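Reviewers asked in the last cycle whether our approach scales beyond single polypeptides. To address this, we selected a multi-component target totalling 642 residues and predicted its structure end to end. The input consisted of the following lines:
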Amino acid sequence: MTRRQGSGQASDLVQRLLAGDRWALTRVLTFVENGYPEGRQALGELFSHTGRAHIVGITGPTGCGKSTLAGALAREYRRRGAKVGIVAVDPTSPFSHGALLGDRIRMQDLTSDPGVFIRSMATRGALGGLAVATNDVVTVLDAAGEDVVLVETVGAGQDEVEIADTAHTTVVINIPGAGDDMQAIKAGILEIADILVVNKADQPAAESVYKQLHIFMDLARNEGWEVPILKTAAHKEQGIVELLEAVSRHRAYLTESGRLEEMRRHRARRQLLSVAQRMLLEGVLAQARENGRLEELVEAIAARELDPHTAAARLIGGAAQ
Amino acid sequence: MTRRQGSGQASDLVQRLLAGDRWALTRVLTFVENGYPEGRQALGELFSHTGRAHIVGITGPTGCGKSTLAGALAREYRRRGAKVGIVAVDPTSPFSHGALLGDRIRMQDLTSDPGVFIRSMATRGALGGLAVATNDVVTVLDAAGEDVVLVETVGAGQDEVEIADTAHTTVVINIPGAGDDMQAIKAGILEIADILVVNKADQPAAESVYKQLHIFMDLARNEGWEVPILKTAAHKEQGIVELLEAVSRHRAYLTESGRLEEMRRHRARRQLLSVAQRMLLEGVLAQARENGRLEELVEAIAARELDPHTAAARLIGGAAQ
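The resulting structure, written as structure tokens, was:
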């Protein structure tokens, strides 16, 4: 009975979400983020309404001005009449829980604009959960009719690379003077860049980072798309129009070259595997918890009687019986 | 026949590794990182030899001087006769592939010291692979008789939180002047700190970060261990003795309070679940690839006929038959 109510509730919320109801959107996102059955059902119903939004990943080191840049870009999209979603996956983001009062005040014009929807994601959670949850949140915002979804993450590590898989266009931000210049330019993160931005370009040291990025990118292979290197001063809204135009050019390139279609398939595969992985583990765990097998194996590893690989094989074997 | 050779080879390598052979250690790590069956076998044989090393996580934003600090700390441990392993999970680390010549030269005294073993990890890989691989590499170094293993990662995102689970003591580095000061102090990352370090403390702005950290930590809950806030200037080897002593005090606290035992169990659980998750997915994929089911489902998601959750359920259901 509860299940049927839940199921009816989800369908009702989905209809309201598709009709533009922001409250319904918030509710669906909560269901989705928490992995509730209603969230899964909503995703199923919403999925055929997706594929229209342009997803822009914005990444860079802590303190590089990601949120300010995302905010400025959102304002520029709003001036052009586009609906904007912002997903903040960065614990230091003003959009995120850890925000300071000052940051929140600076963002107030955005949070009070009905054409901007902001969602913060926790960066802690279940194994492999963040990338899955981010994908799902982006899917919901896409179905809700956002024209552009900005996904803001701290640039480092595997999370970001996985989240870059979610994005059509990945903007990587660099800043002058964060430690040794060349060390601040991260080889791993440059590889995922479709557009490079030197933010805080009003600082004198910016020119040096800009030149180094040019040298670095000249060495990189160029496969159809030449990565533009732009200068911005997001807190003064400088260079934002150029950034928006670079995003649009990249979108056009993706469509014309057939890369968008490839990305769609690539992203489908990643999503399938991430979700399957989590589902499989949940299934095995539910059973292993019930019969006490999980605790036995944990104890055996802690006591160094079993290595984790052997224990995992037994966990899986036991659940399959 | 190949399998038996492989199996014999792994056992032989394990014996040589336990006897202190560095070449055997390198080989075993390669097997382990690549997920070869020989690596899994070696882990099984080595596991009962682990549990002695103290694992120190070192994390912080890009350009904060992590590698320099890890290097300085390693030198101080060497002066005290301890064997040190360094695992670099940061693409910008001089220990890592992306290193510049100058960084490598500065680290030369470490790389030529037979009492120091350095291993770099790629930050890209299979889903959930990095945390699993890092755990496995640390396990091998522990078994190889390192007294201390320093695990160096960029501080942000879930990877680092998972890798912090590997460490007994987590050192979080902050630096002056990386963007807005308070924004550089990351709420999420502070939560995992056992020791806080203000590196580059010879810079004038350091005092402000130091004070802000004190204010921040005074607000935090204190559960038995008061997180020390230290000042270092790693490139001048200043404050390193104090850092080493703080690590030793934390180790003593963990042992006396029973926390070390709790961590062992917690870590065992994480390792078991990470490995099981990867194993489960590999099993399902092997079958789905063979019968073409995987490509069918990927196409259906790409065409928006099926959402990823429904497709994943079919993938798992299909493999179970």
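Chain B touches chain A through 90 residues (CB under 8 Å). We regard this as preliminary and will revisit it once experimental data from Aim 1 are available.
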